[in-house]
Model the fold of this input.
Amino acid sequence: MEQKSWTLTDRQLCDCEMILDGSFYPLNRFMNEKDYTGVLKEMRLSTGELFPIPITLDLDKDFSEQVEIGQKILLKDKEGFKIAILTIDSIWKPDFYMESELVYGTSDESHPGVNYLFNKSYNTYVGGELEKISFPNHYDYRKYRLKPFQIRKSFNEMGWDKVVAFQTRNPLHRAHVEMTLNAMKDLDARLLLHPVVGLTKPGDVDHFTRVRCYEKVIQKYPSNSAILALLPLAMRMGGPRETLLHALIRKNYGCTHIIVGRDHAGPGNDSKGKPFYGPYEAQDLLKKHKKEIGIEIVPFQFLVFSTKYNIYKPIEDIQNNEEYKTISGTELRDILDKGEKIPEWFTYSEVSKELKKSRPPINERGLTIFFTGLSGSGKSTIANGLFIKFLEHNNRPVTLLDGDIVRTHLSSELGFSKKHRSLNVQRIGFVASEITKNGGIAICAPIAPYESDRRYNRDLISKFGNYIEIFVNTSLEKCEERDSKGLYKLARMGKIKEFTGISDPYEKPKSPDLIVNSDGSQSPEKLVDHIYQTIIKMRFL
Done:
């Protein structure tokens, strides 16, 4: 039987590495259907061990139809490096709704884990034993990428018999340092600062910036009391269940305690503004299973800065009429967006410098303006007018990626099938992301008929800068009326297949940043001025 190869996605690569290095013990394979069902319903592997999160290998339709039970497939990274051989012993179709409800307690797609399931996961799962070929290559921060056995060996050599783990996916500030120092003092323990550098919550500070911040902060601890190591975990933001997983992982790294915060590993609020998880659900679930896991919980004390005493204190210890300060993640991002100074009481100057470099003020970041609408809606005319407007009033580089321009120079070999339309739009998104990443302005004007492609581009580009989606909401009748090329007429006659708006759907944007109508009631010049002024009001210029 021919050995086929599968290129692992970013999440799959993280999962594979954690299986191979023992971080996920007792799990040592990609789950089969029996393991998967047991984890969903009882948080138990088929062998009976506690395990809270499904770790599965999902395959796309084309590839899954080419494999069968007993077959060996080669798992590679995106560069083609061989990672492992998987011997398939289970193939099944998961129920994403059931998985989301049982694992995350919700099917609301504003939850990152749920969103990944419904919009990024492939619909066939395979499980099987893994034979390691090599660990994934990491070119960054190699000295911190320590495996469980290496960390345990270090603890033994240093005589650390009590070690408290602190997981973070955010930069550390003064309150975090105070909190970990307090835990170390109370337990007479040392610290494993163990940040996640795999996939985290969309919009999080990139791990390169975070590690530079950790390198500065680790120096604030007493000598030989704390070590920094990086964890290649792909977080699901699964709240209580994920907290159990974090505890299992730290037990495998040799830790005796783990700090668990309020709403640990939670993604915040749902689409209706209600928290996905209660503040202490994660702590309660870990307490319930701590004996089986073999690790003690250290409840996170929410610290605030007392202006009266000039120290950090647990909020429960704040006395009546005692003034205090704190800054939420949202407030910190707002400070950075406005280019304001981060208060010294909140974080260290070294951390502030790194954060400012990583997140410059809004008006200094790159920008993508993404128009979408039917053929003939007027988006190309408006986009070109806006392009000229930027050339007139700004000294930043600006690039126009109109649909016809892209089809000529970037996607000339593509047809108009759904697959090719998606590929064309995602190519535009990639080019725009590179322009945005480097501080430029990209104006895009494809039809982009599918919501999933537009969401893909928003997620991709927003990592690097600002993004505005503009829906040119012009009626189909008006588009047909102004059709100078006669394309709609040919489509109505059946001479053009898969034509958007006629024989192929146009999915209206669910939540565009701006809606304009180019039905003729306003001149293109007025629409361009309106859009330009709106961008200024949004502080993007």
Observations:
- The chain has a mean pLDDT of 93.
